[in-house]
Amino acid sequence: MCDCLCFNGAPVDEDPRKRFQGRQWETSMMHACCNHPLGCLIAIFCPPCYACHLRRKALQYDMSRYRCCQGYICRGCTECTDGCAQDCPNLCLCLESFACESCAISATRIYVQEEREIQTDPCDNRIIRFNNFCQLLSCICHFLAIFIRDLRALAHLIDLIADIVYCLTQACMQAQTDHELTLHPTSEDYGLISNQPVAYGGPAPAQYGAANTGYAPAPGYAPPPMQGPPQQGYPQPPPQNYPPPTQQYQPPPPGYSDFPQKQ
Predict the structure, then answer these.
(1) 3 pLDDT band (50/70/90 cuts)?
(2) How confident is the model at residue 74 (pLDDT cuts 50, 70, 90)?
(3) The dihedral of CA 25, 28, 34, 37: what is its sign?
(4) Residue of 41, 45, 147, 165 with fewest CB within 10 Å of its CB?
């Protein structure tokens, strides 16, 4: 699907989230309908209510942290509503979700991504940009239909396609966010992330032994001794299952011979 969408999946240069490299979404928007089908169905039939629920869930139901669009979209306008948001956060959230549904959905997803430092998925960017292209194309066709009557039927058709694309896009976006919040309710549920660079293509540090060499010593022989100096203060036991050491040759006493002597 992503290969069919001829849009660039890289984030824009001024996007602060392009530096996130530690985590990835538990599911991409393309697979959200399979990994969280119930969320997709709820988002299709009642997207504003689902948007309210996800914002509260993302804030861990602490509405003192609520802001209109969490300050991500049109910050000049959202700052004017901070006073009302502090006094009646639930009412403001409902108004935001029903009056600015797409902004509310995007703000919740951006908030979760920044709080958990989740890497931007290129396929998600393509889907979002394809949706934005359809909405822009619909606006252009409606504008042209004002002056060209023959384009009105085409404008209505493109408008219908754009609505379907938006409905599916926001459903996958909300299902993706809900799936992430369900598996990881807080940002501390991910565990530690190693920031050490990985040298790809190089061999791993050698750990000698039968488990790594792929073979065990032959029966009747002990494994090879570990390299390193012997421990001080402890006698070293002789190796097990080895034949006894050969005695050194001692010359016979004088007058003794292995051959019979002449009488």
Answers:
(1) very low
(2) confident
(3) positive
(4) 147
Amino acid (one-letter) located at 16: P
- 67 within 8 A of 85, measured Cβ to Cβ: yes
How many alpha carbons fall within 13 Å on the CB side of residue 76? Answer: 0
Helix (H, G, I), strand (E, B) or coil at 44: helix
> 242 and 221 in contact (C-beta within 8 Å)?
yes
Q: Please, what is the average pLDDT of the chain?
A: 78
pLDDT classification of 18: cutoffs 50, 70, 90: low
Q: Rounded to the nearest 10 degrees, what angle do helices 101-116 and 89-99 cross at? A: 120
Both structure tokens of 126: 């393509």
Q: CB atoms < 10 A from the CB of 48, how many?
A: 18
Would you place residue 259 in the very low, low, confident or very high pLDDT band (cuts 50, 70, 90)?
very low
CA distance 223 to 23: 43
Contacts of 217 (CB under 8 A, 6+ apart): 210, 223, 224
Q: What are phi and psi of 71, to 5 degrees?
A: 75, 10
Contact 151, 138 (CB under 8 A): no
Cα 187 to Cα 28, 58, 122: the distances in Å are 18, 10, 22
DSSP letter assigned to residue 204: P
Cα 263 from chain centre:
99
Whose CA is closest to 112, among 169, 191, 185, 36?
185
- The CA distance from 184 to 180, in Å, is 6
